[in-house]
Amino acid sequence: MQGSMLLALVIAFRYANLSETLALIGASLFAISSVFLALKDTINWLQGVKDEFQENPILGKSLGSIGVITNLIGIFVIVYGVFI
Q1: Which terminus of the chain has a smaller tally of CB atoms within 10 A, N or C?
Q2: Domain span at residue 25?
Q3: Which of 52, 47, 9, 61 is nearest to 31 (CA)?
Q4: How far apart (Å, rounded) are the C-alpha atoms in residues 76 and 26?
Q5: Neighbours of 24 (CB within 10 A)
Q6: In the chain, which ranges are continuous DSSP H helix?
Q7: Which residues contact 3 (CB under 8 A, 6 or more apart)?
């Protein structure tokens, strides 16, 4: 899911009217988001979590939350660049 979203955002960056600094911030946020979501999945796997929604592991939930928040901020940067 992350891979296809990141590839689609490459296209969105072409249409975004952003300064180089703001584009770098947006791209960095997406990269950071991907790292945290991969860490979440890895930690859940190492802990033997079978169903993260049922077991609700604290560390996985925290890493996932950071990943989602950075992803949303990155999306906001892209939307700002495309529509404003």
Answers
A1: N
A2: 2-83
A3: 9
A4: 8
A5: 11
A6: 2-15, 20-46, 52-55, 58-83
A7: none
Q: Please write the tens of the pLDDT for every residue from 11-38.
A: 887 778 888 898 889 889 999 999 999 9
Per-residue pLDDT, 78 = 86
Token pair for residue 70?
């950075």
Write down the pLDDT at residue 7.
83
Question: What's the rounded Cα separation, in Å, for the pair 11 and 50?
Answer: 35
Higher pLDDT, 3 or 47: 47
| Domain count within the chain | 1
Residue type at 55? Answer: E
Residue type, 6: L
> How does pLDDT run across 53-71, given as a tens digit for each residue?
899 999 999 999 999 999 9
